[in-house]
Design goal:
Rossmann fold
Length: about 290
């Protein structure tokens, strides 16, 4: 096919109705919650993906534009197309990129990309694949719009034991409000990925060649506990809303408990949390037409 038949019908879509499990409403608040992590991860992910100057790259699920801006910084001739199902995030990413003429952003879901076949040199997805209802279809679409041999890559946080910012929070929440944590988890969709091997399997199911995986490590320094805790009050995601509710209902006990879980604090009050992400990449391959 040359173009998705659903292209263009995206004006009123939201992340909760386009195959995404997450529910993010305010891009600026979301950026305050997780943006610092995305900005640190993006350059490592780009290096793993093998992106070079002069390429045209698709950023799938561009969100606030952290990956797009990092891609633009790799060279003067790089061009970036970013897609996201939510118009507010598209506008935020466009503005954050300072309206760079090399970058174009538009609203679209990952599973039905509004581009012709073999349009891009590479297609990347930063921290979005795990939220998709049909990741295999999304990867097939990424491959469809990428030239033969072009790189298709994605990465996501290791939520098993590699994202201490969140694991510490949930540990504290379970200590002060175990019943509410259990109830929330019972009604929250879960598509758990247990390691890079699971991502590699998605790539193989999507028909990609030369599949490879790696682990990316991100050390994040917080200048104080407040620097760490402030993003949880951003009100940007279901997690931050939950944090605000529990902390209020327990009269600050959640915050106090979480503060007590932070270890290895420097004399100046700073500390480092080390996160890791799983990354996968493969090459697009297209069926060759048979000779007449």
């Amino acid at each position: 096919m040359a173009r998705s038949r659903t292209a263009g019908r995206h004006g009123s879509w939201s992340r909760t109705h386009t195959g995404l499990c997450m529910s993010f409403s305010d891009p600026a608040r979301y950026d305050r919650f997780m943006g610092r992590w995305s900005r640190c991860l993006a350059p490592q992910f780009i290096r793993f993906s093998g992106i070079g100057d002069g390429q045209r790259v698709l950023d799938v699920g561009c969100g606030t534009g952290s990956l797009a801006r990092a891609l633009l910084a790799t060279g003067k001739e790089v061009r970036v197309d970013g897609v996201d199902p939510v118009e507010a995030f598209v506008e935020y990413a466009r503005h954050a990129a300072s309206n760079d003429e090399r970058a174009v952003f538009r609203a679209s879901p990952a599973e039905t990309l509004p581009y012709d076949d073999k349009t891009f040199d590479a297609a990347l997805a930063l921290l979005v694949l795990q939220e998709l209802a049909d990741p295999v279809q999304a990867v097939r679409e990424m491959a469809r719009v990428t030239r033969e041999g072009g790189r298709i890559a994605a990465c996501q946080w290791d939520f098993v034991d590699g994202m201490p910012m969140l694991s510490l929070f949930w540990r504290a929440a379970e200590m002060v409000a175990p019943a509410k944590v259990a109830a929330r988890r019972a009604k929250t969709p879960s598509r758990r990925v247990n390691g890079p091997g699971d991502l590699a399997e998605v790539w193989r199911q999507a028909g990609l060649a030369d599949v490879a995986t790696t682990i990316l490590e991100i050390p994040m320094r917080f200048c104080s506990f407040e620097d760490y805790w402030r993003p949880f009050r951003a009100g940007a995601t279901p997690t931050t809303d939950f944090a605000e509710t529990i902390n209020s209902e327990t009269e600050g006990k959640l915050e106090r408990t979480l503060r007590g879980l932070i270890t290895d604090i420097e004399p100046d009050g700073s500390f480092v949390l080390r996160a890791q992400a799983w990354a996968v990449a493969g090459c697009a391959r297209h069926a060759r037409a048979s000779a007449a």
